[in-house]
Structures are given as C-alpha cells and as structure tokens.
Amino acid sequence: xxxxxxxxxxxxxxxxxxxxxxxLRARFxxxxxxALADYELLELTLFLAIxxxxxxxxxxxxxxxxxxxxxxxxxxxxxxxxxxGLSESAALxxxxxxxxxxxxxxxxxMKKPVLNNWTRLMDYCHAxxxxxxxxxxxxxxxxxxxxxxxDEIQNSGTVDHTPAYPRExxxxxxxxxxxxxxxxxNHPSGDPKPSQADIDMTNGIIGAAKPFNIIIHDHIVVxxxxxxxxxxxxxx
Length: 236
Description:
The protein is an alpha+beta fold. It has helices spanning 4-13, 18-31, 38-49, 56-66, 69-73, 77-81, 88-107, 118-129, 166-176, 196-209, and strands at residues 136-142, 148-156, 180-186, 215-223, 226-229.
C-alpha cells in the first residue's frame, strides 16, 4: 500500500509552476515564437537564469516598467538590476540575448554590398541604436565595391548632442582604406528629423572628405519611430 505521506511530500517538492514551464516550452517547440505572447517569450529566457521561481509576474513587470521588448532588451545591465527579483545573472542573460540578436543582424550586412542590402542595414541600425538613451555617432566604412568593411561608434554624447570631428573621421577612414562612408546617429527624443546642427555637421564632413575623394553616401538619423535619410531628403 502506498504511503500517503510520501505522496504528499512529492507534491510539496514539485513547485506549482513546473507544469506551466513544461507547457510553455512545448508550445514554443510546436508553434514557434508566434505561438507565444511577448511576456511568455521573456519567461522562456528567464527560465535559464531563474530555475526555481515563478517568473511570469517578473516578466510582465519588466515589460510594463520598460514599455515593451525593444526597450527592455536595450536597457543597461544597471537599469535591469534595479528591478526587484532580477539578479545579476538574469540581467546578464537578457543582455546576452540582445548581443546575440545584434551580432546576427550585423553578420547579415558585414562584407556585403550594403547599397543592395539597405533594408537589412536599416534593421541593424535601428535595432542597435533606436532605443539608446544617449546620442551615438556611428560610421559605416565601405570599400570600392561598397562592401561594409568596418562599423564603429566614433563618439557618444548627451541625450541631444554628439560631437563629430571631420578630421578624426577622415583619419580613421584612410587608416581602414575605405573609399566611402555612411554616417549614422540616433535621436533619443524619438523624432528622426535632422536638426540644423546635424545638417551643418554633415556638410563639414562632406567638405573634409572632398580632398581625399571619399564619398559620403548618406547620413541616417535613427529613432524609436523610424529613421530619416539625408539623401532621400535632398540634403546630400
């Protein structure tokens, strides 16, 4: 005859969320990511770092706090660790997922003619810059075949300004043997419209590039709501 005390002990040892985790994994395996809501996908990631706790409330709280998955995945490790219940290892797990995603997007455009892969290039720029809280000035360096040979952040600034130095940009372009560049920076305000300061800065870089026959293909301004192109706006 089975020992009722042993059965009760087994029930107590099995946490209530164990079945939920199994069902969520099964839904993901069968239906893919589209079968799960955002908070459920986030739960799957948190499972790896928090093995012995119900993480559904935490997943929902994280999305509410940051406003959505893009904002959450681009939050700093310091911001993440301020959330009650999110340990350093869990924050690192989220940042690792973000890094993997960005690395995959970058691999899609590196060493390839970017002018023929413009949509993928914009996807990469938007993913890596749109939700930054400070302005970053990025330079994409191209060779004679317009293949992306280097991608570097030249400067980081405040919430509404990033210094860009034409002489330093030309120096780095020549060091890499690039023949053309694409300028990219973000607007944390959410408005991708170029400012007069952006226009003046771009004209200064174009002027510095002329003696070296370096082509400025475009200047892209990225924000949460989209991006703008100096070339499409007739500013280059």
